[in-house]
Specification:
285 residues, alpha/beta, Rossmann fold, 6 helices, 12 strands, globular, binds zinc ion, EC 3.5.1.103, N-acetylglucosaminylinositol deacetylase activity, hydrolase
């Protein structure tokens, strides 16, 4: 195997599109700076609602295959070449929203054995040896079963990999500071009339909103705003983009953040707010 760059970042997400919405600017920035960026996506999002009318016939495996194509286009936009499906494409399928009978499907990610899935992810960790891992908080950011499961699997994989020889120095959860979200929604109220969306979403629609003090890290990806928007646009079955806003299939407008925020949950908590995920690892930019 050729030697990887000295800085290595691993992101763990539930569905194709989550990476671009949550971390698109971060991924584009670190890829542009020459860091090795690895994305592991746990399912192909086979149960996602499809926005474009002409694609609404797609469902199940056909939708999964289509979304894999969208993911490839998104990764091209972000400059990320290393992206994988946990256990290979189709190993785990989308669980659908909480409370639906879809969650009982034996092949869905919600039903996955956490240790087994974490073992698959630990193999990736031991191969890449990242200094930084990014995933969701224990509520998955907003309670979707696959997001909660991605959190559990990622955190368990960190333990398994540590026991097997690679202790990831820094683990982060995706966050949005409440003040940043409030300001952005106030702006959205003013801008809504000029947007192709009828209604604004609410702050509760944004995953991972917490009090400002809980946020340890802000990654300024403003220079990569266009790449993030392009990556989100690539997920056309799931997202409509009208910068600096976007909407999911519920058609509720929400802000598209190009500074992305994190909470450090493994590693020494910084005194002030960091601006680099690799700060303190000896590999800071
Ligand atoms: Zn998702």
């Amino acid at each position: 195997m050729t030697e990887l760059p000295s800085r290595r970042l691993l992101l763990v997400h539930a569905h194709p599109d989550d990476e671009s919405i949550n971390n698109g600017a971060t991924m584009a920035r670190y890829a542009a700076e020459g860091a090795h960026v690895t994305l592991v996506t746990c399912t192909l999002g086979e149960r996602g609602e499809v926005i474009p009318r002409e694609l609404r016939h797609l469902s199940g495996a056909a939708l999964g295959g289509h979304r894999l194509g969208e993911l490839k286009d998104a990764m091209r936009a972000l400059g990320v070449t290393d992206f994988r499906l946990l256990g290979g494409a189709g190993r785990y399928c989308d669980s659908g929203m909480m409370g639906l009978p879809d969650n009982d499907d034996a092949g869905c990610f919600w039903q996955a054995d956490v240790d087994q899935a974490a073992g698959l992810l630990a193999e990736v960790i031991l191969e890449i040896r990242p200094q930084v891992l990014v995933t969701y908080d224990d509520d998955g950011g907003y309670g979707h079963p696959d997001h909660i499961q991605a959190h559990r699997v990622a955190m368990r994989a960190v333990e398994l990999a540590a026991a097997a020889g690679w202790d990831i120095p820094k683990v982060y959860w995706n966050r949005v500071p409440r003040s940043v979200a409030e300001e952005a929604f106030a702006r959205l109220d003013t801008d809504l009339a000029g947007l192709p969306f009828d209604k604004a979403g609410a702050l509760d629609d944004v995953p991972g909103v917490v009090d400002d003090a809980q946020v340890t890290t802000a990654v300024d990806g403003t220079a990569h705003a266009a790449a993030k928007a392009a990556a989100m646009r690539a997920h056309a079955t799931q997202i409509t983009v009208a910068e600096p806003y976007f909407a999911l299939s519920n058609e509720l407008a929400q802000p598209l953040f190009t500074t992305e925020y994190y909470e450090l949950v493994r590693g020494e908590r910084p005194a002030g707010r960091e601006s680099d995920l690799f700060a303190g690892t000896g590999e800071a930019s």
